[in-house]
Write a structure and sequence with these properties.
The structure holds two protein chains of two kinds. Chain A is of the alpha+beta class. Helix content of chain A is about 30%, strand content about 30%. In chain A, helix 2 (about 35-50) packs across helix 3 (about 85-100). Chain B has one domain (about 5-195, about 245-250): 3-Layer(aba) Sandwich (Aminopeptidase), CATH 3.40.630. Chain B contains eight helices and nine strands. Classes of the chains: A alpha+beta, B alpha+beta.
Chain lengths: ~250, ~250
Amino acid sequence: MNQDRFQIITPNDLDDYRDRAGEIAEASWPEFMMHDPIANENWHELFDRFSDYQFALLDTESNRMAAMGNSLPFQWDKELSDLPEGGWDWVFIKAVEDHKNSIKPNIQSAIQIAIHPDYQGQALSTKMVQAMRAIGESKGFKYLVAPVRPNEKSKYPLISIDDYITWKTNDGLPFDAWLRVHARMGAKIIKPCHEAMTIRGTRAEWEEWMGMKFLQSGKYVIPRALNPIKMNMEKDEGVYVEPNVWMVHEIR
Amino acid sequence: MDTDRFQVIAPLIRADYRDLVRGLTKIAWPEFMLHDQVASELWHELLDRFPEYQLALYDTENKRVAAMGNSFPLRWEDSLENLPEDGWDWVFVKAVKDHKQGLSSNYHCAIQAVIHPEYRGHGLSARIIEAVRAVSKAKDLQALIIPVRPSEKSKYPLTSIDDYITWKNEEELPFDAWIRVHVRLGGKIIKTCHESKTIRGTRAEWEEWTGLKFPQSGEYVLADALVPIEMNVERDEGIYIEPNVWMVHKTR
């Protein structure tokens, strides 16, 4: 595939940018991942407050959106190793709060890179990370951090995230494909964040999202989830707590 | 689907039976299930010792086999509640031994009912069970016992088999489709057998069978497996112990 065929665009370049981006999200995420309340409540803030940090890759041949990237700036004065367990959910809220309070940001965080399934396996992920880093660079930030979702862990839901991130390929690179994309570009693993996203639903909601039945309390393995979910029948609540991995790119 | 189109065939009435059923097991099972040691060593005994107990449903329109049922007779003097924990593996060895010793049989046991993937969802499971049951009657055996594989449990690998068999659907029938087929035909659950099949392999073998990697010791969830496997990297051995459900169809 000719790489020049893909052009980086920003939300102002297309009237229907958000609709098209929404289609990519729907095509690339399992249903239950669309029910993180922090994402749902705050998603519009990306465009309202941080539009410079949103971009997409347009396939100029077919005029389709092939991938999208979302990031945001926030303020962080502590060590990177002190980044919180709440990872994704935490950083989204932090950035919005900082912006509301006019606190000057000094660091960039990735929120999402999604490649449309039709375009996966073509190294667009690297191109997307590069584009995201370029935004941080243009803003004068030193670091791009990312609560990375190690997608392939969904095949290993009983392995702890702390063990999983130590797994290597024969080349000594991270076993997980997404961690590997970042590592190949020079990013380092800071540490796992065990509660990067928390998704709650009633039993009926989880049954609808999953096409499964939950007939008793307990842990359940669900397709495409990185950990089992915990179903509590008495409380009529299932909880999924997703672990991610804090990684850092030194931009300059 | 017109059910008259399917004809029950057996090795003694079709000289090409062996050729017709060849490959069906491979298509119908996940790869790791083809590495049960007892099955691998004894499979040939089915046709060598018990040809009258091997059946298939032949699709007269497309001239191929749509389903297969494998069974054999055995001697069992104790009560059915005392059938052993190692269900499937045990009963196969027992039947061969009984036959070698010339013991007269009083029970009939089915060890496999498979439907070709292209013929699933057409009620052939009930037809093949009825065909197998007709053999119990013809041979004047007092009951058909079966270590049933509740295949839908593979979606619930963390739920214990003892809990799983209590699950009901909205009609108050067993939740699991295979258990339900038997119950609809008058079969009863006797009890669970927790070590019905034991499959052992080296780490490299399990990696080949499943396409997964096992970099460390621990429990792993596999597609189509009813419970997780236990991988021991130091001993270079992975063990899968499959639970089944002893069920019985009384002949009279």
